[in-house]
Amino acid sequence: MRPILLKGHERSITVVKFNFDGDLLFTASKDHIPSVWRTENGERLGTFNGHKGTIWDLDVCRFSKRVVTASADASAKLWDCETGECIKTFVHHGPVRGAAWADGSNMFATISDPFVEHNAQISVYDVPENDDPSNYSDSPRLEIDLPKTSDGKRVNATNIVWLNLNEALFVTFDNGSIRLYDPTTGEELDEFYPHEKKINRVSFNLDKTLFITSSADFTAKLYDVVDLKHLKTYKTDRPVNDAVISETKDHILLGGGQEAMSVTTTSGKVGKFETRFFHLVYEEEFGSVKGHFGPINALAINPNGRSYASGAEDGYIRLHYFDKSYLDMKDPVPEVLEEGEEEDDETEDRESESDSD
């Protein structure tokens, strides 16, 4: 499996994301300039210039018309995907950690870190596609304050996603918790703790019936979206920075490695910077793909299941197209024996034994 190496960022990668159709790949890093690439050949189509800080997250709308980016310069920007022009800048109180489009692509939500006297916040902005951008409000339609916990600790949000039909805002936190909020009233609907340490990333399958969390506690966990039931746990020997669910196979891809600050003291082999493949049902690791020189920070799998992209601390994005052998591979499913089959095998065994005698 030979990767296409995408060299366009000067610093470590923070997010890689395919659009809904899988023909474009959007990437961002700590170098302030998000990029868009053609997945067919790895050609860079353009950049979105204007931020003055690290891009922590980005999201592209359903029909790839508009992109929203979340940056450490305390702003979220709305871009025209085709021209790369900035449509509007939404100023926040603190660094913006995440951004996500709602179903219908007429509003988006962001999460921002606490800053000085301002608490961390979830903000929802209305940006109807058919309206004139000059009519968009600078202030959010809804602001949900995330105050300190009862013991005085600040809890920062790490990811935000809209659930199906915009029924709830799904937010992960750095204390290992997940909360659901009502996107109309801002009321907290549910809270549970899948992990003991920070949840680095959460990712959903295409129809949002399953989600997988990646944590610094060396595990990734698979959950059912409807009843929030824990289904599977994938254990590793290093922090997991991202995990994705394959759309066409019962496979999970995990990326991680040691923390970036200790990377210089170890070789690539020891640091374990490969993408690891697990079976979704059996929780067993069955393969890995090496190549990066630093911990993998971001993973994305193409909706058609034929390729995946990984972005790492080394500043490279590797776009891998799966070999035919992987695409044709049959998973080891225990076969149900039809009546009479087992007996035939046993009689054959007995006959071969008698022949050897």
Please, could you describe this protein's structure?
- The chain is mainly beta and 357 residues long.
- 7% of the residues lie in helices and 43% in strands.
- A hairpin with a 5-residue loop joins strand 2 (13-18) and strand 3.
- Mean pLDDT is 90; it is low at 343-348.
Round the Cα radius of gyration to an integer and report it.
23 Å
Q: How many DSSP helices?
A: 3
Q: What fraction of the residues are assigned to beta strands by DSSP? A: 35-45%
Q: What strand line-up does the widest sheet have?
A: 1-28-27-26
The amount of helix comes to under 10%
Distance between the termini: 49 Å
- The backbone outline, from C-alpha atoms, is globular
What are the segments in which pLDDT stays under 50 over at least 5 consecutive residues?
Answer: 343-348
Helix/strand structural class: mainly beta
Largest sheet: 4 strands, antiparallel
Short descriptors:
4-stranded antiparallel sheet, single chain, 3 helices, mainly beta, 357 residues
Summed up:
This protein is mainly beta and 357 residues long. It is 7% helix and 43% strand.
